[in-house]
Amino acid sequence: MEKISESVVKKDHAPKMSGRSVYVGDYSGDGVLTGKFLRSTLARAKVLGVEVPPLPDGYFYVDKTDVPGDNNVNIVLDDTPVFARDTVEYIGEPIGMVVGPEEQVVDRLLSEIKVAYEELAPMLDLRKADTVFFNYEYEKGNLEKAFAEADKVYEEEFSTGYQDQTYLEPQGMMAEPEENGHMYVHGSMQCAYYVHGAVMRALGCRPDEVHILQDVTGGGFGGKEAFPSILGCQVAVAARKANAPVRCIFGRREDLEFTSKRHPSLCVYKVAVKNGKVTGMDIDVKFNSGAYTTLSPVVLQRGIICASGVYSFDNLHVHGRALKTNTTPSGAYRGFGAPQTFFAVEMMMNHIARDLGLDSLQFKEANLARQGDATSTSGKYHFPIPLPEMINEVDRACDFRRKHLEYEKPQTGRYRKGIGMALWFHGAGFTGSGERDHIKAVCKLHKYPDGTVEVLASNGEIGQGLRTTFPKIVAHELNLPLEKVYYNHPDTARVPDSGPTVASRSLMVVGELLRRAAIKLRTQWIEGEDQIVEEHFREPDFMIPFYLDKFQGDAYPTYAWGVGAIEVELDTCTGISKILGAYGSFDVGTPIDYNIVIGQMEGGYLQGIGYASIEKMDYDSKGRIRNNSFSDYLIPTTKDVPNLKCMLHVEQYPDGPYGAKGAGELPLVGAPGAYVAAVEQAIGGKVSLHHAPFTAEDTLNVMMKEAE
Amino acid sequence: MVNGYAAASLDEALNLRASHAVVPYAGGTDLMVENRPNVTYLFLNKVSELQQIFEDGDYLRIGAGVTFTQALSDERVPQIMKDAVALIAAPAIRNAGTFGGNLGNGSAKADSVLIEFAADAKIRLQSLRGERIVPVEEFYLGRKKLDLSDDELITEVLLPKTGLDLYYYQKVGGRNALAISRVSFAGVFAQQDGKISNLAAAFGAVADTVLRYRDLEAMLLGKTLEEARGLKAEYLRAYGDRMVLTRGRVSAEYRKTVCMNLLNEFLTQFGI
Amino acid sequence: MDAIRFVLNGQEVSYEGNASDRLLDVLRDTYRATSVKCGCKEGECGACSVLMDGVLVNSCCVAMGAASGSSVTTMEGFRETKRYAVLDRAFAAVSAVQCGFCIPGMVLAAEALLSKTPHPTEDEIREGLSGNLCRCTGYNAIVNAVSAAAKEGNGLW
Q1: What is the pLDDT of residues A341-396, one digit of tens each?
Q2: What is the phi/psi pair of residue B12, to 5°?
Q3: β-sheet bridge partners, residue C4
C-alpha cells in the first residue's frame, strides 16, 4: 500500500464520537425564532388568498411579498421560487413561513391559516407528461444500418422509483442578521457557494453582504447539494423580515415528503445484436423532474451519457427528456442519473444473453470497452479499463461463475437461490467542460508563522472524510505531521470557491489542486512567515473537448470502475429475498485513506442495495408521497446485509492526487443491476424483471403470473 | 407532576384510573409516536405488581408491565412467544415496550398479541369495581376498539402453560430489523390419541384485528393426519374464500397469498 | 405539583415542565445535552438513544413522567468513562465515524450490548445495534469497532 493510503484517525473523529460536534440544530435556541412552513395541500392550484390570523408580538408571517431581491432561487435555472408564486405546483410547496419564539405557538398559527385555492388538474403520470424541461439527443454511427443488418433486435422497457437520500440529520438552516446589516446563513449543506449565490440574489445584495458557513453536516449524498439553497433563501428572507435569527429544522416526515430525491425513470432500450455482439442501441430515457427543474438538466446529462454502460459498439442513439410532473422536485442523489440507466442497460444485457443462450457474464465480457475505445459521446477511454481483472476478483470472492451456472438449473422447494453481477463506471467530476467553464475551482493554503497550514477551500465534510484527506495530501507534500495541517468547515467569507461538494470531484479535482498548492508552498516556504499560496483549476491536456450541444467529446477525464455481485435466497412463500452476500470490487484509483475509501464503498454499496430492494417510495393519485415516515420508507439496518465485502482495485489516474479518482458515488451506481439479476435468477423460468426497487410483493406477483 | 400521574402501586393506579381521564402509559413506544395533544398519562412503569411473571395452575401470568426484553430472558415464557417478541423492532423498543401496551394499542400488527390469539390466551382486566378475565379474541372488538372500560387497566396476560410446543411462526416485515409486521402468522398444533386436537391458525397485520377462524379449524379437528390430508384442499379453499384482507403498506392480494402460503407451510410441517 | 426528579449523567435534576413532554426534547432544550440527536421522533432510527437505568431506550419515545426517578445517561456522561475510551479508540482505528449523526446513539447501543454481552458474536453485535440506523458506513466498520472494543476492553464490561 502507498504511504498516502495508510489510514489515520480522522480529524473530526473525536468531536463527532463524543457528541461534541455542533450541528445546526444544536445551537442554543435562546433568541432564535423557529420557522415552519405553510405548505400547499394540493398538487396544482391557483392560490387565491392566504388568510393569516392575528399574530402575537414577535411572530411573523413571511411569503413571496417579503423577498427583498428576486423570488427565484438560483440553481441551474431560476424557476424554483423562494416562496410560491401565484400557483402552487406540488403538494408541500412552501407558500409561506411562520416564525416566532415558541414552536407550539408557530404550529398553532400555522393550523389557523386558511388558504383559498382554485384547484387545477395536476400532471402526475410520467408517461403522459408533456412539459419537457430538458430534451437532449445524441448519436453516432449508423444505427439504421445496424438494425437492418442485425441477427436479432431486442426491445424492452425499464423503470426505477424514487430513492430518498435519508441522511440521518434532516435538512436544517439558520439565518442570522449581523450588526453591520449583513446576513449570516449557516447549516447543513454540501455547497456553501451555491447557497451564497442563491441567498445573495434573494436578498438582492452584494456578495460581501452575505456569508455562508457549513455547519457539521449529518450526511448529504446529494440531498444537500441544491436543497439548502432554497431553504437558505427562505430562512434569510424570514430573518431579514423579523430582524432576528431564524432557524428551520425539518422533521423526518417533512424531509422525506418535501425534499428532493432521486428521479424516477422510464427507459426504453432497442438493441441490435450480430454474431453475439451488440452492434447498436437506440435508447429513450425519461426522468421525472417533479415540479421545478432544480438539477434535472445535469442529472439527465449524466444519465444519458451512461446509458450504454461499460460496452463498446459503434452505433448509438440516445434521447433523454426530463419531464415536469406536479410532484416534489427531484434532485441530486449519489450517482446522479447513472444508477437509473446502468440498471436498465445491465438488465438488458442479461436478457439478451439469456435469449442467445449465452452466459450473461461472457456476453458482457465480449462487449466490454477497452482502453483507447470511443466512449458513448465519441470521447476516449484514455486509461486502462480494469474490469476483466475486477470481475475475476469478485468471482474469487464469491465463486460467482460456478454459482451462476448452478442456480440457472431448475430449482424446487420453498427456498431458491440466485446470483447476479453488474458492471459499471462513474465518471468523476462535472460532466463535460463544467470544471473548466463553470466551476473554475480556486483553492488556497495559508501557512501561519507557527508553521501550521490551513487549507482554504469550499468543499464540505459530510462524512466522506475531506477534513482528513485534504490535510493528508498537503501534509504529505510538505513533509509535515498531520497535526500541523487542518481544514475547517468552509465559511464563504474566508475561503475561495473551490466548487461544490458533488460529482465525486472534491478529492480528485480539488485534492490535486491542493497537492500542487502544497508543492508551490514547499518551494516558497520561509520559516516564521505568514504565507498564502493559491492554485487554479487546469484541465488535463489529454482531454478531447466536450460539446454539450452535440454530446460529443470527453464527458469525463477518467472513470472509476465497479463490479458487484449479489447472492440471494428467495423464500417463495413470502417473496422475500434474503441477501446471502454482496461483493464488490471498486477501482477509485489510489485510496487517499484506506479506511475512508472502504467506508465510502461499503456505505454506498449498501445504499444501492437498499435502492434495489426495500426502499420503495411513491405518490398516490393526488400526488402525495405516502412513504413519508421511517416506518414506511425503509433503509437497511445492521441486519439486512451482514455479509458485505468490498475490495479495492487500484488503477492510478495520473492527473489525480497520487493517482486518486472520484470515489463517493461509484459504489451505489450498479447495485440495482446486480440485485435484481439475482432475484430474477432465483425466481427462475423465463422471467424477465424490469424495475427497481424489486420488492417481495413484486416477486410474488411475478411468480403468481408465471404459475398461471 | 404536571399533567400526568405516576402510580407507585396497582391500587394507586386503579384509583387514579377511576378518578381521572387518563391514558394508561406502559412503555410509551406507541403513545409517543402518536403524540396526542393535551394528553394526561397515567404512568404505570413503576408499578412493580405489573412487572412480574407468575406461574399458577394452568397459566403463565405475564404482568402487563413486563417488557419484551424481560420476557426474552425468562425461561418460563414459551418459545413461540419468544420467537415473536424477539422480532419486535429493535432492542431499545423491546426494552420499553410491554405486553400490556401491545394489547392496549389495539393494533392487529402487535406481534405478542398474535401469539396470544394463537395460544387461546386470556386477558385480566382490573378496576376498583373488580376484575374480569376475557379471552383475547373477545377483548378485541374491532379496529383499535377494545373491550376495556374507562376505569379498567389491563393487568395480565394469561398464557396456557401447555400445548404450545408444536407451533409454526413467521413474521413478514419490510426488512430484518426495525420492521413492522406486514403479515404475520402463528399456528399451534396438537394431537391426542392419533387425532388432531388443536390446529389454531392466527393471522396478524392483515385486517382490523388478528384473524382466527374457529369454524374452519374445526374442519380438521378430531381427524387423523391422513384424513386431514384428504381434507386439506377443501380446508385451504375455505380459508381462501373467507379471508378478506385490507391493504396497507402492501396490497391485500400480496397479504392473502402470503397468508395462504404460510397456512399451507404450517399444515405441511405437521404432516398434513 | 411536584417537579419530575431524575438523575442526569450522575447529577440530580428536577424538571418543572409537562409530564407528557418528550425526554428527547427536554434533554436537548432544557439540559442542553445535544449529543442526543433527533432523527425521526418515532422510535425508528435510534439517533436519540440514551441509557435509562442502564437500559437502552429511544428518548423520543419516553415521556418525562416515565423518566421520573430514573437515572439517565447520555453521551455527555458516558464520554467520561473508561469504557468510552475503549470504544473511542476502536471506532477511531477503523474510521467508523462518518457524518457522526448516528454515533452518540450508536455508541450507547454498543455500551448497552456489551454490558449485557461482554463478548458478543458478530450476529449479536448486529442485533444489538439493529435499532440504530446509519446511512453512511454500511455498518461493517461500526460492527468491527464494537467487536474490537469487546476484545480490547476485556474485563471492563
Answers
A1: 999 999 999 999 999 999 999 999 999 999 999 999 999 999 999 999 999 999 99
A2: -65, -40
A3: C15
User: Phi, psi at residue B223, to the nearest 5°?
Assistant: -95, 155
What is the pairing mode between strands B195-204 and B183-192? Answer: antiparallel
Q: Which residue has the cell 396526542?
A: B36
Q: Quote the cell numbers at residue A267.
A: 427507459
Local confidence band at A82 (pLDDT 50, 70, 90 cut-offs):
very high
Distance CA A680, CA A314 (A): 30
Q: Which helix (H) or strand (E) holds A261?
A: none
Q: How many residues in chain B? A: 272
Residue with cell string 392575528 = A54
How far, in Å, CA of A588 to CA of A428, rounded?
9
Pairing of strands B41-43, B23-25: parallel
CB atoms < 10 A from the CB of C145, how many?
26
Residue tagged 407451510 (cell numbers): B265
Chain A positions touching B183 (Cβ under 8 A) are 574
Closest by Cα among B114, B119, B216 to B165: B119
Do A312 and A367 meet the contact criterion of CB atoms below 8 Å apart? Answer: yes
Q: What is the rounded CA–CA span in Å between residue A79 and residue A66?
A: 18
Short-list A397, A389, A287, CA closest to A331: A287
Distance of CA A708 to the CA centre of its chain: 41
State whether B41 and C65 contact (CB < 8 Å). Answer: yes
**Can you say how many angstroms the Cα of residue A88 is from the centroid of all Cα atoms in its chain?**
26
Q: Do B254 and A697 touch (CB under 8 A)?
A: yes
> ipTM value of the model?
0.99
DSSP structure string for C25-62: HIIIIIS--TTS--S-SSSSS-TTEEEETTEEEEGGG-
Alpha-carbon span B244 to B26, nearest angstrom: 32
The three cell numbers of residue A474 are: 498537503
Q: What is the pLDDT of residues B191-211, one digit of tens each?
A: 999 999 999 999 999 999 999
As to burial, measured by CB atoms within 10 angstroms (0-12 exposed, 13-18 middle, 19+ buried), residue A141 is middle
Nearest CA to A89 out of A37, A134, A46 is that of A46
Q: What are the Cα distances from residue A101, in Å, to A29, A96, A166, C72, C101?
A: 9, 17, 29, 28, 26
Strand, helix or coil for residue A648: strand
| Distance to chain A for C66, nearest Cα, Å | 22
Residue B115 near chain A (CB below 8 Å): no
Nearest alpha-carbon partner for A101 in A35, A33, A37, A36:
A33
Contact B264, B272 (CB under 8 A): no
Per-residue confidence (pLDDT) for residue C1, from 0 to 100? 53
Chain B residue whose CA is closest to A614: B174
Distance CA A44, CA A618 (A): 18
Establish if C55 touches chain B: CB-CB under 8 angstroms. yes
Instruction: Test C39 with A637 for CB contact under 8 angstroms.
Output: no
Q: How many CB atoms lie within 10 A of CB B73?
A: 9
Q: In this structure, are residues A170 and C135 in contact, taking their beta carbons and an 8 Å threshold?
A: no
Alpha helices (H) along A414-564: 434, 466-478, 511-524
Whether the CB-CB separation of A347 and A673 falls below 8 Å is answered with yes
Task: Tell me the C-alpha distance between A577 and A679, whole Å.
Answer: 7
Evaluate if residue B37 carries a pLDDT over 90.
no
What type of residue is A608?
A: G
Phi-psi region of A575 (alpha: psi -120 to 50; beta: other; left: phi over 0): left
